[in-house]
Amino acid sequence: MKETKYSSQPEIEEACDSDASLNAKSSNDPPMRLSLYLCLASLTLVLFITALDILIVGTIIDVVAAQFGNYSKTGWLVTGYSLPNAILSLIWGRFASIIGFQHSLILAILIFEAGSLIAALASSMNMLIVGRVVAGVGGSGLQTLCFVIGCTMVGERSRPLVISILSCAFAVAAIVGPIIGGAFTTHVTWRWCFYINLPIGGLAIIMFLLTYKGENKSILQQTKDIMGKISSFEFGKFRKQVNSKRVMNGIIFKFDFFGFSFCSAGLVLFLLGLTFGGNKYSWNSGQVITYLVLGTLLFMFSLVYDFFIFNKFNPEPDNISYRPLLLKRLIAKPAVIIVNMVTFLLCTGYNGQMIYSVQFFQLIFASSAWKAGLHLIPIVITNVIAAIASGVITKKLGLVKPLLMFGGFLGVIGAGLMTLMKNNSTRSTQIGVLLLPGFSLGFALQASLMSAQLQINKDRPEASMDFIEITAFNTFMKSLGTTLGGVLSTTVFSASLHNKVSQARLEPYVGKTVDDMILYRLQNYDGSHSTIGNILSDSIENVFWMDLGFYALGFLFCIFSSNKKLIIPKKNPTPEDNIEDK
């Protein structure tokens, strides 16, 4: 039998700190230290500014469009951030497994901060969009790495609580984002919506460096080691040691260059087709059809390449770091793909609900951005409560699938109730229908990530790397669902609005783009029960019906998810029970 060599295992174990290694934690977790709490606080702060950057933009669109005179490009302030945010999630997981968690997170924060600074200093709409794209690249790494680092810092039993704490950052940002953005835009300048990321990000870096000991070394010792390597560096010797062929193989096979390229290009083209369809081009136009068909084919080919072609050309098949981003052994495993489909479908529906709940109050009742955002408080509070409750219950009882199904079931009921939100519904109805979607996502997302992580075979030498990539894949599905939810909800709303305006032959809206219709509506508001008010209400209702479909499909996947539970240690353990998991 051929002996398998694991030449890159030391490299991977170096990326996973010895205290945080997947294989070094037993189910009976030791008490959490103060440094651990502070490190989790720094990760939560990082996720907070990432989420804030997504949610705060909605408050500046009108002001920026007026200043730069290009309202048609304002959609790219969201899309420019969300596209790289989704497609780069997988590559950051691989990057971290090779160069280490600490360096990867710091790099991601610096890229995110650079994008925020570019956006804050923007002198044109194009420059602002570039800043958003750069921030999206960094933000993608932050979302992936914070969950990977947080989960590897504790034992399996404490992970649900850590996941819940980190997830709360998004919920809190959903409340704070519109309020802060509205205050800055109204009383100071919209540029502070991006400047605010700089001091918060700087504080997060300092806290993280002081509390996270990725290699059980102090930050001072790590700095000395780096400076020592720099001072002893000899370029001539390094040049002789560099093997151009190995460097090229590393790019192609360590980072799955071709698979990543095909997947990214496919997703970008497909999402652009959905974005342009019915807006810039008609749905039956050659441009839109080409985007959608070619995007789908490229994405499908990326799966074929990773699953079947990659290893045929792999020069080092026994090197566990030479593997595709979408590893068939992990991703195609039913128990893994099912729960990640739950994440994808629920995030798709949830983001549509979040966006058009705000749009409902802005377009129909002419509420300001921050006042409209205040209506999301019920959905955010219930999300936080459910996330914390889910973490506590899972840690105490080991339950995963019951919470996943409970969250999926609440999502279906809540999405059904959301269709009752209309321009003639009562204020209590408009508030009450937002409660269950928050509960749903709070329970389901934590359980889905935990369920996926439980499928890892800890006996495999590459278990640590599997853990990183399953967590990264979950973040990828979450980001992709969030992005697709925003694009699809806008597509449904736009198509519905166009059709209803054309049928009613409503002047002066006929023949205008959706952006122009909305701008005219806000400048010439004629009440919530006018003809255009009724049309807007019906169009938003169609978005909520679409969201109901995603929740229903997500609940079906919940039913077929894995029955694995967390192992809860006995109250009076025997010596054998205290042996650490392999």
Summarize the structure in words.
The chain crosses the membrane at residues 34-61, 73-93, 105-123, 129-149, 161-180, 192-212, 255-276, 288-309, 330-352, 372-391, 403-421, 433-454, 475-497, 543-561. Residues 1-10 have a biased composition (Polar residues). This is Basic amino acid transporter. Residues 1-26 are annotated as: Disordered. InterPro entries: MFS, MFS_dom, MFS_trans_sf. With 582 residues, the chain is mainly α. The protein has 3 domains: 8-219 and 245-254, Growth Hormone, Chain: A (Up-down Bundle), CATH 1.20.1250.20; 256-324; 330-567, Up-down Bundle (Growth Hormone, Chain: A). Helix content is 73%, strand content 0%. The protein has helices at 9-15, 34-55, 61-68, 76-87, 89-99, 101-120, 125-152, 159-187, 192-195, 197-211, 219-231, 235-241, 244-254, 257-276, 286-313, 328-331, 334-365, 369-374, 377-397, 401-418, 427-432, 435-453, 463-504, 514-523, 531-559. Mean pLDDT is 81; it is low at 1-28 and 574-582.
Keywords:
582 residues, mainly alpha, Growth Hormone, Chain: A, 3 domains, globular
Topology, please?
Layout: H1 9-15, H2 34-55, H3 61-68, H4 76-87, H5 89-99, H6 101-120, H7 125-152, H8 159-187, H9 192-195, H10 197-211, H11 219-231, H12 235-241, H13 244-254, H14 257-276, H15 286-313, H16 328-331, H17 334-365, H18 369-374, H19 377-397, H20 401-418, H21 427-432, H22 435-453, H23 463-504, H24 514-523, H25 531-559
Helix pairs in contact: 1-5, 2-7, 2-8, 2-10, 4-7, 4-23, 5-6, 5-7, 5-23, 6-7, 6-10, 7-8, 7-23, 8-19, 8-22, 14-15, 17-20, 17-22, 17-23, 17-25, 19-22, 20-22, 20-25, 22-23, 23-25
Keywords: Membrane, Transmembrane, Transmembrane helix
Subcellular location: Membrane
Biased composition (Polar residues): 1-10
